[in-house]
Amino acid sequence: MPLPHTHSLVVSTLSLEHSDKPQRRSRAKVKKKKKTNMSWQTYVDDHLMCDVAGNRLTAAAILGQDGSVWAQSNNFPQVKPEEIQGIKDDFTTPGTLAPTGLFLGGNKYMVIQGEPNAVIRGKKGAGGVTIKKTTLALVFGIYDEPMTPGQCNMVVENLGEYLIESGL
Amino acid sequence: MYGGDEVSAIVVDLGSHTCKAGYAGEDAPKAVFPSVIGAVDGVEAMDVDVDSTKTNSNSEDSKTESEKEKSKRKLYVGSQAMSYRRDHMEVLSPIKDGIVSDWDLVDNIWEHAFKSCLMIDPTEHPMLLAEPPLNTQQQREKAAELMFEKYKVPALFMAKNPVLTSFATGRATSLVVDCGGGSTTISPVHDGYVLQKAVVSSPLGGEFLTDCLLKSLESKGIKIRPRYSFKRKEVRAGEFQVEDVDIPDTTESYKLFCQRMIVGDIKDSICRVPDTPYDDKSYSNIPTTSYELPDGQTLEIGADRFKVPDVMFNPSIVQTIPGMEKYAEMIPSVRGLPHMVMESINKCDVDIRRELYSSILLAGGTSSMQQLKERLEKDLIEESPHSARVKVLASGNTTERRFSVWIGGSILASLGSFQQMWFSKSEYEEHGASYIQRKCP
Fold it and tell me: Which Pfam families does the entry mention (chain B)?
């Protein structure tokens, strides 16, 4: 698993701040921390499991696209290799999961509209899951009532966009 | 989080046939008008009808040639404007194949709804827009951009038509059968979301049936005369003779628009879905029903009462209607309503199919056709898996069935728990239009 490169993160952050793009792109704000404390777990704890308008994800994780666990919250389910493979297949060929459902640790989610090769969204009762694909990773957010699907999307996809912009 | 409790949101459902708009919280849209627009190219017409017109005269060098052409158009929006014939006025639709293809027309329709019908200032009202289930990301972003940049709305949400219909009946899960004017769409809704991959659509909607009836009547020598095209002359006390009025500068599209209005009313008045598949022999001797045309002609309509609506169930009937030859290539690939329903359900997860069969919701103006519900239920019971418990549900109230999308939007936008879901103006300014994908999944 790649280590978060402090140097490249700082450079990326600086370049973003000086961007001339007319429309500012979303990015997660990275708190300044000592080098020794920078870790993938920090991304999960501070940027995924954070408070959003009084609501919080029930579980979150950043996994490598090979299924390796970079970081996860305490109650993130134990995913199986075939579940990860199913997710990757659906990114490659959207629609493969819809007839069978999306499984995470044995929990079944109905697939709703996502974004081809970028986002998969699932629904289970009033809650659901959002999975954002980045260059090297998969960012997971699992939510339940009263958190809204839009709020989960914001947290997961904002972090995912940031990772993509950082080349990760 | 946008605090949307203060003022009523505006709900807009722009369909391919009609646009519905009104205040959230009310039980029916305040404005209902045609989704088509009259357009006169390139001339400065000396029209006194100022209230219903809008001139897009601001040309810019950066616009493409077609945009320059569009900017010279004089556009006429709304029932009243469309009821008045004008020389060289073409009738245009902003929607092609279910997707917006002309945003300038959409813009004018929205403006008509806000300014002329509802008489509101859009900067003061959050907007809930209903959208088709297969709407593209680009279309959503374009709509968001137009709403925030031009109308400067304080907040926006976009919800899919079948989700709103399902919501209007208090269901989180259902199979929505939306028989609209321009198309028929089957959409499974699960826990408040469309199961995208299982959406099935067909171009056979109410307007197609109207065209079938129009061609069938014309093939029998019946002339459908729009009001502008004839005058009645009293030849004897109490006796009138109809004379055609020659108005050569009327466009074919406007003539067709007017004929469709007349034939659409005939269809709505007398058509009835047959209990079993239509065949010519069984219906050759049935009693006729009378209908008086605007020119005083009385029609006697027999088999067509049952033949035309059966097109929804057996599209191949179209081949037997003179004048519908141009659809010969398209028809073989179109399936009837019961098959579309089963096709959609079979694309869904096995675990929810049973629930979908027992919650089939009818929606859209064409679904109000007499006996359509009963026929669909009967056909599905016969053809669906034995384990399925088929139940076709439809509001007994035709207004609710016709406007179910709008009504669902009205309910949704009024909910306290919905208020945290708005895509606010400040979020748009910070993140841009693409944020709509996250805020309104």
Answer: Actin
In this structure, what CATH number is given to the domain that contains residue A77? 3.30.450.30
Question: Domain range holding B259?
Answer: 206-331
Spatial CA neighbour of B22 closest among B414, B410, B430, B365: B410
> What pLDDT digit, counting tens, does each position of B145-189 carry?
999 999 999 999 999 999 999 989 898 999 999 999 999 999 999
d(CA B35, CA B105): 9
Tell me, yes or no, if A35 comes closer than 8 A to chain B by beta carbon. no
Q: Could you give the CA distance from residue A27 to residue A5 in angstroms, rounded to a whole number?
A: 17
DSSP bridge pairs for A37: none
The dihedrals phi and psi of A132, each to the nearest 5 degrees, come to: -110, 130
- A19 vs B: CB within 8 A: no
**What is the bridge-based pairing of β-strands A102-104 and A107-115?**
antiparallel
Assigned token pair, B27: 């039980």
How close B423 comes to chain A (CA, Å)? 9
Q: Which residue bears the tokens 């027309």? A: B105
Report the residue from B352, B423, B437 with minimal CB separation from A110.
B352
pLDDT in tens, B319-346: 899 999 889 988 999 979 998 999 999 9
Q: What is the number of domains present in chain B? A: 1
Partners of residue B234 on adjacent β-strands = B240
Buried b / exposed e over B131-165, threshold 16 CB at 10 Å, is bbbbbeeebbbbbbbbbbeebebbbbbbbbbbbbb
The answer to whether the Cβ–Cβ distance between A100 and B349 falls below 8 Å is yes
Q: Determine the residue of chain A that is closest to B195 in CA distance.
A: A112
